[in-house]
Amino acid sequence: QVQLVESGGGLAQPGGSLRLSCAASGFTFSSYAMSWARQAPGKGLEWVSAIYSDGSDTYYADSVKGRFTISRDNAKNTLYLQMNSLKPEDTALFYCAKDASYYPLYEYDSWGKGTQVTVSS
Question: Is 33 helix (H, G, I), strand (E, B) or coil?
Answer without folding.
Answer: coil
